[in-house]
Structures are given as structure tokens and as C-alpha cells.
Design a protein that fits this description.
Helix content of chain A: over 70%
Distance between the termini of chain B: 43 Å
Number of domains of chain A: 1
Distance between the termini of chain A: 32 Å
Shape of chain B: flat
Structural class of chain B: mainly alpha
Helix content of chain B: 55-70%
Strand content of chain B: under 5%
Strand order of the largest sheet of chain A: 1-2
Number of strands of chain A: 2
Number of helices of chain A: 12
CATH class of chain A: Mainly Alpha
Radius of gyration of chain B: 23 Å
Largest sheet of chain A: 2 strands, antiparallel
CATH architecture of chain A: Orthogonal Bundle
Oligomer: heterodimer
Order of helices and strands of chain B: HHHHHEEHHHHH
Number of domains of chain B: 2
Strand content of chain A: under 5%
Strand order of the largest sheet of chain B: 1-2
Chain lengths: 334, 256
């Protein structure tokens, strides 16, 4: 979602620029107290990791792939302040050195992709941690919810900026419904991959997960309980609530508008997220023929897809349980 | 951006634009793009002048039109979005070859396409003539917090190392017959991302230890380098000043 120059009006660019600069400044001060003199090398390497993580292609469905965005993951691993700084660095370098995203659009790009995902994602994470048991399984499940929601949160931020700074008269509810609806689906992949990545890090170096600092070694060792239930219920609840909210918005827009809105949202993301060519694209068109049907299908499909992902996460975790704990202590991969 | 060419946008060269001080180039680029951003969309001639200015600068920098056009594909998703706008925008409809389009929407699409293209061209010119370390030096001279630019410098320095590790992990997985098709088969991908984070973090710890042993006190030393001369600043101000004059003329001309 690297918006180009002139996508939103000048006032919005300046305002979001000021908000982003303030948030990054505050985050830098916060980070200085937590990381002290280690901040430059550690945050630098973490930024390189996030940049590389955005190249991690994971399968979505039938051979199509998506990639991580990493804002919530960075916040959970490093804390919200350091996470926001790290992702900001990635976004700024992408704009400056890779011409990806406009230089005068940095205000809203940083706000949407770094500040909202890191702080919003971490906020959701902290809330979910309270509701879930204080174990490694709880942290993994909370990561799934937080990372999954951080993507539609970012889309919401964009839609709200559109409300103030649109350069064309496309109705807010069309943009909001399309952006959030599509990103809800992208968020499912983001949530699943982030959760499993955090699970792997908890197995290898639990001390590196900022969001799990409060856990004792005994609690992080307790990995058998993740099971299907926690992650699935969390993801299903989140998807149901959001799908309902989103379908309310889209249902209030005329059908024709809405359909193009969804298509257009898909197109805007087509480069980064080949999700659009997968079976989810069908969900987008199916869900808009009739307002009532749209509402039901949007909610239902969201829940169904999330359920599938939950099953996937659950199966992955169960896999780990049967293989025993001995092999889990070291990082996987090569 | 695979391993081996971490700065795919930089084109080696010795043009006057290559040799400009980086802080001057960044300031001029941002000012130029900002001028394009405030130009009212009805002033088509103004965008033409601004685009011609960028094209002239690209010619002076000898970046090659094919390189620039290929890099411009970055904005394609947003152009695709812009092309949908005339169909969905509200307001007065006009008929264009049998299609009912929104007049406002057409102007909106033109607005997004023209500004995004000029902005991306200027960014490509900036990145194509300035190496990443020099860009970061320029940023810190423009009073961007030193911590931020130091972090960015570390990121750029180790990006290829980390991306290389990721590539080796992928190769190893593929060599063992891993070819996932569905999201629920993605656990090895995710755990390798986790392993990559642990390795990156531990590398960070080692780098920090190595820096401490070489007398690091928490701030990066300023390695100096040539600073911008007054002549360079005047040149840059003239270049972006033209864009601003055009923008102001367009604003007063259209009464916007």
C-alpha cells in the first residue's frame, strides 16, 4: 500500500506528515530508554529483517502467494515504539531508494504502514493477551489476532484519510468497505504467518519476544495447549465482528458502486497481494449482488476463511506436539 | 531486489546531477514534487511544463528512457485504481464513446495519474543518481534525527546479508521437496521467518559487541564528506523554483 504523490490532498499530506513525525519522534525517545546504545545496530538489523520479511512469499491458496507486511510482527517482537521506528525506516528507504511510494506521500504512508500497524497492532495484542491464558500459546494466539487485525486497521486509517483528503468524489463508505473488506482477507494470511513465526521464536529465544517478557520460562515451555481452540476462536471472533461491521458499511452503498469498489480495491492491491486471483476474488463478487446476501456472505465467508486458517494454524501446532519438544528448541530452517 | 544488486535503482554515472550534494538533491526533489502536488488539475499545461522539466533532468543525468519507464511501473496499481474512478465517482455524468463517466471522476483520475507519474519520475531520478549511503548522509544533513538515519544505514548495510540468508533457507527447503500451495502448509515458511529474526537479532548483538570493542559510545561518528556549496543550493532552488512558478501561475490562472 505505497501510495504515490498527490493521491490525497495537500492538507492531508501535511497533517499526516506532522502526526507521523510526532509519533516517530516520541517512539525514538522511548526506544532510546529501552535499547540505549544498542538501538542503532539492533534496530538496524531488525529493519533489515522486516525488509527481508516483506520478501517472504507464503502460499495462500492454489499456488498463489502473498507476503508479510510486518508492522504488527515488529511491534510484538521489539515493542511498539521500536517496531514503529523500524517499519518507518523501511518505508522511508523504500520511498527514497526504491521510488516505492511518493516522497510527499510519506506522511500518510508512514502513518498507515508503520504507526497504525505497530501501535494499533500492539494495542490489539495487549488486549488479546489479557483475554487469553498467560502462556506461549496465548502469545501466539494474540499475535494471530493482532497481526491479522493490523492490516484492516491500516486500511481503515487510509479510508479515514480519504474522508478528509480525497482528490475525487468517491464516497467514503465505498472506499471504506472495499479497503477494509479486502484487507481483512489479506490480514488472515498476515496473522497466520506472524503467529507461527512468533511461535518459532518463542521456541528458540523466548527472551527476544517483547510481547512475552512477562512469561516465566515454565510458561513459555508450555506449548501443548495452543491447540485448535485458542487461535481458531480468536480469529473467528475477530473476523465475525469485523465482517459484520464492514458489511454494514458496504450494504449501505448502491450495488454497482460497491462492486466496482471491491474490484478497485482488489486492483489497488493486485501487485502486492496476488490474493486477488485466488478464490477470494469470487467472494468479493459473490458478496455484492444483493444487500442482504452481501451482508450474510461477507460475514459468512470471512468466518469460513478464518476458520480454515485457524484449522491450518491448529494443525501446524498439533504437528509440533507429536514430534516432541526436543527438536523445537533450536531454530528451524537451515 | 535479489542478492547481488541491493540498489537496483542506482545507475552509475558522472553527470552533473550525480555529483550534486545529496542534501541538495533531496530538498530539490521534495520541493519539485510538492509543486506538482499543489498544481490545480485543470492546468494541463502546467503538468506538461513540470514533466518536461523532469524529462530534461533525466536526460542530463543520462538515465535512459527505458530504465525510467521500467521503473515507473511502480505506480501501475494506483493508475489502475485511478482508471476505475470515472466509473464510480459521483457527480455530473458525461458520455465518452458510449460510456457514462463522471466528469469529476475523469478529472480525479487525471489528477492522480499526472501527479503520481511526475512524483515517481523525480524519485527515480533522485534514487538513480544518488547511492543509498549518500541519500542517508543527505537526510541527516537535512536534520532528520541521527538515530533514524543511522538505523537506516545499518539496515541498508545488512539487507543483502539477511536477504541472502533468507534465500539460502528457501533453497534448502526447495531442495528437500517443499513446495507449498495452501496457507495451512505455510508453517515452514513462517518458522524460517522466525529463525531469520533470531539470526538477525543475534547478528545485531554481535555487531553491537564489535562496535563497543572499537570504542562506540552510542552515537555514530560523522565521517564528514563534501557539503553542499551555495552554488548547488542556488541551482536546486532554481530548478524547483520553476516548478513552483508554474504551479503558482496555474493556481492564479484557474482562480483555484
Amino acid at each position: 500500500m505505497h501510495a504515490p504523490d498527490g493521491f490525497l490532498n495537500v492538507g492531508t499530506a501535511v497533517t499526516t506528515g506532522a502526526i507521523s513525525a510526532g509519533a516517530v519522534g516520541a517512539s525514538l525517545r522511548q526506544m532510546r530508554t529501552t535499547l540505549r546504545d544498542r538501538q542503532v545496530p539492533l534496530a538496524g538489523l531488525a529493519a533489515a529483517f522486516i525488509f527481508a520479511a516483506q520478501m517472504v512469499n507464503f502460499p495462500v491458496a492454489a499456488g498463489t502467494t502473498g507476503h508479510l507486511l510486518g508492522g504488527a510482527l515488529a511491534a510484538i517482537l521489539l515493542g511498539p515504539a521500536a517496531g514503529a521506528v523500524v517499519v518507518t525506516v523501511v518505508v522511508v528507504v523504500q520511498a527514497l531508494a526504491f521510488a516505492d511510494g511518493g516522497l510527499t506521500a510519506l506522511g500518510y504512508n508512514v502513518l498507515n504502514m508503520a504507526i497504525v500497524t505497530a501501535f494499533g497492532g500492539y494495542g490489539v495484542f495487549a488486549l488479546a493477551r489479557r483475554l487469553l491464558p498467560g502462556t506461549a500459546s496465548g502469545v501466539v494466539a494474540a499475535t494471530a489476532v493482532a497481526a491479522g487485525l493490523s492490516v484492516p486497521l491500516s486500511a481503515m486509517a487510509f479510508a479515514i484519510e480519504w474522508l478528509f483528503g480525497a482528490t475525487v468524489p468517491v464516497p467514503f463508505d465505498t472506499v471504506f468497505g472495499a479497503m477494509v473488506g479486502v484487507h481483512l482477507l489479506i490480514g488472515v494470511g498476515e496473522g497466520a504467518i506472524s503467529a507461527m513465526a512468533v511461535g518459532a521464536i518463542l521456541a528458540a529465544r523466548p527472551d527476544l519476544v517483547h510481547g512475552a517478557r512477562d512469561l516465566t520460562p515454565g510458561q513459555t515451555a508450555d506449548r501443548a495447549r495452543i491447540g485448535l481452540r485458542g487461535v481458531t476462536i480468536g480469529a473467528v471472533l475477530a473476523a465475525t465482528v469485523l465482517a459484520t461491521v464492514v458489511s454494514q458499511f458496504t450494504a449501505s452503498a448502491p450495488d454497482g458502486l460497491e462492486r466496482v469498489g471491491l474490484d478497485q480495491g482488489l486492483m489497488a492491491e493486485a501487485r502486492d497481494h496476488p490474493l486477488a486471483s485466488g478464490p477470494f476474488a469470487e467472494y468479493a463478487t459473490d458478496g455484492v449482488r444483493n444487500e442482504q446476501v452481501s451482508l450474510a456472505v461477507a460475514g459468512g465467508a470471512g468466518v469460513a476463511v478464518t476458520l480454515l486458517i485457524g484449522l491450518g494454524v491448529g494443525a501446524a501446532v498439533r504437528d509440533r506436539r507429536t514430534h516432541g519438544a526436543a527438536g523445537d528448541r533450536r531454530p528451524t530452517g537451515v | 531486489m535479489g542478492a547481488g544488486h541491493a540498489h537496483p535503482l542506482y545507475v552509475h554515472g558522472h553527470s552533473p546531477i550525480h555529483h550534486l550534494a545529496p542534501e541538495v538533491k533531496i530538498a530539490a526533489a521534495v520541493a519539485y514534487i510538492a509543486a506538482a502536488a499543489v498544481t490545480p488539475r485543470q492546468a494541463i499545461w502546467a503538468f506538461g511544463v513540470q514533466a518536461a522539466g523532469v524529462a530534461a533532468a533525466i536526460a542530463v543525468a543520462r538515465l535512459g528512457p527505458r530504465f525510467v519507464l521500467r521503473r515507473l511501473t511502480v505506480v501501475v496499481p494506483f493508475v489502475a485504481f485511478a482508471l476505475c474512478i470515472p466509473f464510480i465517482a459521483s457527480g455530473e455524468r458525461i458520455d465518452v464513446v458510449g460510456l457514462s463517466l463522471s466528469r469529476e471522476g475523469l478529472w480525479g483520475a487525471w489528477n492522480v495519474v499526472s501527479k503520481a507519474t511526475i512524483g515517481a519520475s523525480v524519485s527515480i531520478l533522485l534514487a538513480g543518481t544518488t547511492e543509498v549511503p549518500r541519500l542517508l548522509t543527505g537526510l541527516s544533513r537535512l536534520r532528520v534525527p541521527g538515530t533514524l538515519t543511522a538505523i537506516a544505514a545499518f539496515m541498508v548495510r545488512y539487507l543483502e546479508v539477511i536477504a541472502g540468508e533468507l534465500g539460502r533457507m528457501r533453497t534448502a527447503m526447495a531442495a528437500r521437496g517443499y513446495a507449498p500451495r495452501w496457507l495451512w502448509q505455510a508453517r515452514p515458511v513462517a518458522t524460517s521467518a522466525g529463525a531469520l529474526f533470531v539470526r538477525s537479532y543475534e547478528r545485531g548483538e554481535r555487531v553491537h559487541a564489535a562496535m563497543l570493542s572499537r570504542g562506540y559510545t552510542g552515537t555514530m561518528p560523522d565521517l564528514g564528506g563534501r557539503r553542499a556549496t551555495a552554488r548547488e543550493w542556488i541551482l536546486a532552488a532554481a530548478a524547483s523554483g520553476v516548478a513552483w512558478l508554474v504551479a503558482l501561475a496555474a493556481i492564479t490562472g484557474t482562480g483555484a
